[in-house]
Amino acid sequence: MPVNAKLTGIGAAPGVSVGKAVLVRTFDLDSVEALRKTISKEDSEREIKRYKDAVKVALDELESLEKDVKGRLGEDKAAIFTAQRLMLEDPTLEYTIETKISENLFTAERACLEACEEQAKMLESMDDPYFAARAVDMRDIGKRLVRCLLGIQDRGSLKSIPEGSVVVAYDLAPSDTACLEIDKVVGIVLDRGGRTSHTAILARSLGIPAVVGTQNATQLVSQGDILTLDGDKGEVGINPDEAVLSAFTARVQKFIDEKKRLSLLKDLPAMTKDGKRVELAANIGNVSDVPMVLNAGADGVGLFRTEFLFLDRTSVPTEEEQFEAYKEVLSKLSPRPIVVRTLDIGGDKEIPYLGLPKEENPFLGLRAIRLCLKERELFRTQLRALLRAASYGNLKIMFPMISNLNELREAKKEVLKVKEELESQGTKVPDFEVGIMVEIPSAAIDADILARECDFFSIGTNDLVQYTIAVDRGNPEVAYLSDPFHPAVLRLIARTIEEGHKHGIWVGMCGEMAGMPMAAPLLVGMGIDELSMAPGMVLKIKDLLRKLDYETCKGIWDKVREMSTREEIKGYLQSVLEELGFAEAS
Ligand code: PEP
Ligand code: MG
Fold first, then answer.
1. Ligand 1 centroid to 511 CA: how many Å?
2. Is 85 helix (H, G, I), strand (E, B) or coil?
3. Is the pLDDT score of 401 beyond 80?
4. Residue 194 has pLDDT above 90, yes or no
5. Which ligand 1 atom sits nearest the alpha carbon of residue 510?
6. What pLDDT digit, counting tens, does each position of 250-282 carry?
7. Atom 7 in ligand 1: which residue has the minimum CA distance?
8. Do 325 and 308 touch, CB atoms closer than 8 A?
9. In testing the pocket of ligand 1, which one of 437, 472, 493, 532 has its CB within 8 Å of the most ligand atoms?
10. Which value, to the nearest 10 degrees, does the dihedral of the CA atoms of residues 453, 454, 455, 459 take?
11. Checking CA distances to 55, which of 42, 372, 401, 565 falls within 20 to 30 Å?
């Protein structure tokens, strides 16, 4: 491979690293003759016995893996093996394998592999990222059974890799990843996989940079190659020359030092020097984001975008599926507050299977709460799932795109109806807060009216900017106009906070502005109670918050409110950050 060669893929876990490539050759199925053979009828009983013996060995292996991983990485990481054990014991799988042996006259190896492949394909066809991930487990089980049938030991190779390794593989099964001695791995590169694959999720939660979906990393990379990894951009450099390597190494060192320094803040309270507490929460879109919330040391979830449970599939998730997802997030993060936003479909988030008519101006159309109040069954199903899950943690329900009081009243009425219905069926529903997103100018202007009838506000600056400045948030041609530091947007934010407080409710922010260092002194000065952002930003903002002084921040806002242009405002805020010695000022 020439020096400075490059590979690109999907940035699946952020960060940069340099290390030596360790090509993981997972067990090579192509070399197994038995996978192409048939048997005679008389041999079928013997093959079924071989299969049953292999199941016992596989179950033992899974059990010991479960114990090992539980001890090293915790219960949630070990759950993969519990799930695989249950899948292996499934009578349907057993029946399919035995039929393939006794009727198709397949060898036990072939019957196991083909049966698992069929089940995996079936799971994949469900077009749901969760089940697609289960398909990986099913294939993992198939391979394990073949290996056990051949009497090959569980792979120890992954456990004895050298310090500073970048693991390069075609794909890593969940059990492979869990076998890795994580403290020796500085990066992961895969031919396959996407952002929601198991390995990507694990890498993110462990803070190991990962690039997946490269297509051909295993062909282009050789054992021992030096690799540079950029998990944000999804880039892998192969055998860099000295100049490139030393520049990259400096970046890595900076990244490591910063990460170490920030990680020390994880358990410290999010408050200014003079004791003003600001809750720092994370935005999530899926159950798989929970580990990131925990790793970020976030105080809770300020925005759970539930529409992500509806995307990338072919039908509406059932009440039961939604209930399981909400329950998992609430219980795993309990007692932290979890603000669950009801469906925000429409605008740029299209869901083809709902068959909604095309609109001329989708961002001004049947979106979010408007759609839910029209499609009541869709709304009710979600509310039922949410209220059933409420007793598992600290739930707060939030309605998106509220533009007037009638919508808020109507949405609350629906919540009350669902609550009464559940209670009449014997389900206890604990008390929970109900709030709204303030992301339409009319809601910010009427903040005093709305505050009287809800428990909290969360300011959605992504939409508030788009609707206040009349600038499509997805159109690059007008992106230069889109800026939360526009004085009109700042006035609406300040008004929302002031009116919220006057009426005794808390006010947070969950738009992108909440994770901008430059905005922090200003929002603290305005009196914001909570900031919710991408999990990866929480520690950085906590670091900044702990350097701020509430009284000084109030003065900063007093100054900014007199300024006329965003350039003036941003120039000033930049100087505030520089004075604080805060490195990244944007
Ligand atoms: C917002 O509009 O600021 C917001 C957080 O919601 P979304 O980005 O999902 O529209
Ligand atoms: Mg929005």
1. 5
2. helix
3. yes
4. no
5. 5
6. 999 998 898 899 999 999 999 999 999 999 999
7. 462
8. no
9. 437
10. -130
11. 42
Q: What is the mean pLDDT of the chain?
A: 90
Among residues 368, 1, 24, the alpha carbon closest in space to that of 185 is found at 24
Alpha helices in 425-565 (DSSP H): 441-445, 447-451, 461-469, 487-502, 520-526, 538-545, 550-560
Number of CB atoms found within 10 A of residue 568's CB: 14
Catalytic residue (choose from 112, 116, 198, 553): 198
Name the 3-class secondary structure at 189. Answer: strand
Helix axes 550-560 and 566-579, enclosed angle (nearest 10) = 160
What is the pTM for the complete model shown? 0.71
Q: Flag whether pLDDT at 585 surpasses 60.
A: no
Of all protein residues, the one whose alpha carbon is nearest to atom 8 of ligand 1 is 462
Domains and CATH numbers, the chain: 5-21+156-261 (3.50.30.10), 29-150 (1.10.274.10), 276-509+530-535 (3.20.20.60)
Question: Measured from the CA of 513, which atom of ligand 1 is nearest?
Answer: 3
Q: List, for residues 468-507, the tens digit of each pLDDT value.
A: 999 998 777 888 999 999 999 999 999 999 999 999 999 9
Q: What is the DSSP letter of 181?
A: -
Report residue 217: phi and psi, to 5°: -55, -40
Probe target for ligand 1 pocket from 303, 364, 439, 489, with the most ligand atoms within 8 Å of CB: 439
